[in-house]
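Hi there, hope your week has been kind to you so far. Would you mind checking whether the tokens look sensible for this chain? I owe you a coffee for this, so here goes:
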Amino acid sequence: MLNDILREITPLTANDCFTMFSREKEEFDFPLHNHEEMELNLILNAKGAKRIVGDHLAEIGDAELVFVGSNLPHGWFTHKCKSKKITEVTIQFHKDLMDDRFLKRNQLIKIRKLFEESQRGVLFSPETIKKIAPRIIGLSKKVGFESILELFNIFHILSISKNIEILSDASFMKEDFITNSRRIEKVFEYLNANFSKEISLSEVARIAHMPNTSFSRFIKQRTGYTFIDCLTAIRLGHVTRMLIDTTHSIAEIAYQCGFNNMANFNKTFKNKKGCTPKEFRDNYTGNQIFI
């Protein structure tokens, strides 16, 4: 269950802006966990290891960089990794390092968006990793105010990087889609309250006070997703939570979350998550520690 995931007490003190540690290891041996602090994790030479962030599971390549938001469950596991020289560089910082009022300034809008997206986990592209990895590794050589300036520079570079991937579904951690539109927010409030039922495009278009065609264009422009994609993501977020939090059968969970055709549900789940619902449940719960 999510409430049983190991709650890590990090070494970051109240008097420090951030902490950083680098280690070489032969395997990943820390269980699935979460913590209040936000985290930037650079992992090198670990091809074949498994990553879990929120409800996202995947096998990783030689190098990866992930930004993990506050309280988001995450962990890396040896899985198929054969390397005996894994490098892991972790930067942890307080979630209020840049508070909301500061981040609302116009010059920080991209960093604010990055921090918001981190609540679902952000995976950066190989091109970004190649560019930023030396600066992340070199941060340990900076001290005092210089170290803070360099950390902010890293945030800036990451905030303007391309081809990022948002890992976890929004509804898994009960996070809202970031839209900056009250009209779209009302739609998502409705979808989150009624995801278990049949919901038509016409129904939500009426909530947005728009014709169907105009609403389809509008939601795509504002979120980057179609209406069906948004509804599916919300449903899958609730599915994954129930797969972890309950012992209900997979069929029961699917129907409770609005999927009325099991063949379509299994196909959709595997396309989005890269595994079957049973594999997801087994993989996720197999890397938890219960306390």
The chain has a mean pLDDT of 88. The longest strand covers residues 18-25.
